[in-house]
Amino acid sequence: MSAQLKTYDSTAVRQYDGTKAGELPYSRTAVLSNRRTAVRFLSETQAAIEAALAAGGLLLRRAGRPRQVRLKSAKDPVTEVDAAAERRIQTMLRRRFPRIGFLGEEGGARNGPDGRWIVDPLDGTLAFVTGLPLYAVLIALERRGTLEAGVAYFPGLGELFVAERGRGAWLNGRRIRVSGRRALHECVLSLWHDDTVWGNRPLRERIAALALRVRNVRIFGAGFALAYVAAGRLDAYWEQSAHPWDLAAGALLVREAGGRVTTGAGRPFDLDDPTILASNGHIHGRLVAALTPTGRGSPGRP
Question: Is residue 39 part of a domain?
Fold first, then answer.
């Protein structure tokens, strides 16, 4: 990544409407809630933060009242705001880093010699449509198969998560760590459900058996759940139907917060694999064993 560093001065998360893409009504230093912390990020990460804040401003103004809602599939809504937010992000990032490619959920795709941005402009569209504040802007930078930076911005909650490879993870300017819980009966897990889960009786039975061993099982999407695993608010997340833009930013957040991320079977994490298990690390092997058909998992360390 670029050697240029910028100070991340944390005072208060500000949404802005970004009427002119790439222009900020305040300094180019993103502003967060913790006055005691100044984090220095690489310029690519700073650009991702600015793009996420701009897109988040668009989302915040239309949350709960989009003008158009259509279905990609029977249970997968999309709005006009999804596409507008992706265009804003792509424009801002391409202006700053024209050599970096782009992969977006809403169809934006461009190859580049210096890596690629992986973007979900509106993760949690159903929450957005119904007015729940659990939607997010997700932006990650991947180079040569390695995730270098990740940003997850929840405009309805005023929470901005940032991670850089080898440097750590932050929430609104404060360092975050995964939970230290080791006993399953103390843990809260999250999973994403769809017809591939509920239509699979053996899998349903494994989930039910695991649910009896943990404190609670919640249903959240990848963007929200992975950020909250990184912050120690959830202890693990599992899904078997994810896309790269669902996972890239959150997977790096969990890793940099000290957690573990693999495929659902416990193998090395792969953005092109639709399964993911992310956890605080302490309970990872037991979750792999509980959720994987007998003999097919690779639990690794307990």
Answer: yes
